[in-house]
Design goal:
About 10% of the residues are buried. The protein is elongated, with a radius of gyration of 20 Å. The chain has two domains: about 40 residues, Arc Repressor Mutant, subunit A (Orthogonal Bundle); about 70 residues, Lrp/AsnC effector binding domain/regulation of amino acid metabolism (RAM) domain (Alpha-Beta Plaits). The chain is an alpha+beta fold and about 160 residues long. Helix content is about 35%, strand content about 20%. It has a four-stranded antiparallel sheet with strand order 2-3-1-4, with helices on one face. This is AsnC family transcriptional regulator. Pfam families: AsnC_trans_reg, HTH_24. One of its GO terms (cellular component) is cytosol.
């Protein structure tokens, strides 16, 4: 497996750009340059290089799921009867288009996959689980519902 090796080493200014943008992705380049004590053009060049090299995947707003009526968050672990079969690959393709799934990870341990799923209510979540049950090859599905969100952070720890 090929590692993601940076084409240019990140320096303190690059890391500072990334930190600022994680805090405020809508920050304008002039404002970012001001925060970094740089002129606008060099700041813009660094920003474009970070985008082109894939350090910055995109820009988005963090939304309040509850205000949007998505009150149920579930962690779903599922297993396949035979992971050497083509069914897991088909599942991975299918799950890409499922809007309720925030993330899907192939994992080690008792299950093969771990999903983070949002739903409006328990009935909506039950419908999601029923849709999973008809996917060929899945041998077990286990759900854990989030009772309370203690910490939410989509920012990467750039200080470690």
């Amino acid at each position: 497996m090929k590692k993601n090796i940076p084409t240019v080493a990140l320096d303190a200014v690059d890391l500072s750009i990334l930190k600022h943008l994680q805090s405020d992705g809508a920050m304008s380049t002039p404002k970012l340059a001001e925060q970094l004590s740089l002129s606008v053009t060099p700041c813009w060049r660094r920003l474009k290089r970070l985008e082109e090299e894939g350090y910055i995947l995109g820009y988005q707003a963090n939304l309040d799921r509850r205000k949007l009526g998505l009150d149920v968050m579930a962690f779903v672990s599922l297993s396949f009867g035979n992971v050497g079969d083509k069914q897991p690959n088909r599942f991975e393709t299918l799950i890409q288009d499922h809007a309720q799934v925030l993330s899907c990870h192939k994992i080690t341990g008792e299950a093969d996959y771990l999903l983070v799923v949002l739903a409006h209510d328990l009935d909506d979540y039950s419908n999601f689980i029923e849709a999973l049950r008809v996917i060929p090859g899945i041998s077990s599905i286990h759900s854990n519902l989030a009772l309370k969100e203690i910490k939410f952070n989509s920012r990467l720890p750039l200080d470690i």
